[in-house]
Amino acid sequence: MLELPRASALIRGVVIWFAPVMCIYLVTLLADFFSIEQTVGFELWGLFVLGVLVGVWSLFFCVKVDANSPRDLPLRFNRARQRLYAYNFKYRWWNPFEKWRVVPVAYDWSQVRAERWRRTHFTAQGGAIIQFGVELSIVKPGTNQVIDRFPLTAMGADEHAWAYVCTYMQQGPDALPPPGPPRDHNDVLWCNVAMLLAPKVEWPADMDLESRTAP
After folding, report:
1. Which domain, by its residues, includes 45?
2. What is the Cα–Cα distance from 156 to 166, expressed in whole angstroms?
3. Which of 7, 67, 106, 166 could be stapled to 197 by a disulfide with Cβ–Cβ 3.0 to 4.6 Å?
């Protein structure tokens, strides 16, 4: 069994520190408003409500985007079973009030395709920001109809990671250089508050057993 981490796809431990700032903002806004509420007009009431809504949304977002995502999103490749197992996390960033959830999935290796993507963004000053990577697409058996997609991210070297995975699944571990020491996905730095609060990686028991064993 080959396991790849995808923690490098997540920027963790920074956004959560904006949560105390948003708390101070909300407290200050409420205190200032209620001290002058008798003299404000309809327009200021509207701005106050909008400010509170933005503050509450920002507070929930800062906490959930950093502390609600799992500590890692590993991929497992079982050569004996010719299966891929993905520890995916489903969320909509613009709605921090709904439940974000882990969705582990398993697919036959024959269903897996790799798609290379590249995007170019331009800043207000005219500078270009180039992003690229590899996405795994899952097709319906016997067709090219895509039924699922998720990123392949392993230390930022997506194309090399995909070549490594293909070699492992087709030729076995003997065709590859020896791997590094195993890594515990739940072992995080003591100083990273967001990662300490984040849920641990816990595969469903049946999927965990299947992904680690031969038929």
Report:
1. 14-68
2. 17
3. 67
Specify whether the CB–CB gap between 152 and 163 falls below 8 A.
no
CB burial readout 36-45, b (16+ within 10 A) else e? eeeeeeeeee
Give the span between the Cα atoms of 121 and 65, in whole angstroms: 23
Give the Cα-Cα-Cα angle 111, 117, 118 (nearest 5 degrees).
Answer: 175
Token reading at 130: 């180039």
Both 103 and 120 in a single domain? yes
Of the CA atoms within 13 Å of residue 182, those in its CB half-sphere come to 5
Examine the domain organization and report whether 60 and 77 are in the same domain.
no
Q: For the beta carbon of residue 201, count every other beta carbon within 10 angstroms.
A: 18
Shared domain check, 39 and 123: no
Number of domains in the chain: 2
58 & 84 share domain: no
In a shared domain, residues 31 and 119: no
* Closest to 136 in 3D by CA, of 70, 206, 88, 68: 88
- pTM, entire model: 0.84
> What residue type is assigned to position 25 of the chain?
Y
What's the gap between Cα 165 and its chain centre?
A: 21
Q: What distance in Å separates the CA atoms of residue 84 and residue 75, rounded to the nearest whole number?
A: 7
Q: Which of 68, 86, 112 is the last residue of a domain?
A: 68
Written as six digits, the tokens of 52 are 């509170």
Tell me the pLDDT tens digit for each residue of 111-166: 999 998 888 878 777 788 887 788 999 999 989 999 999 988 755 567 888 999 99
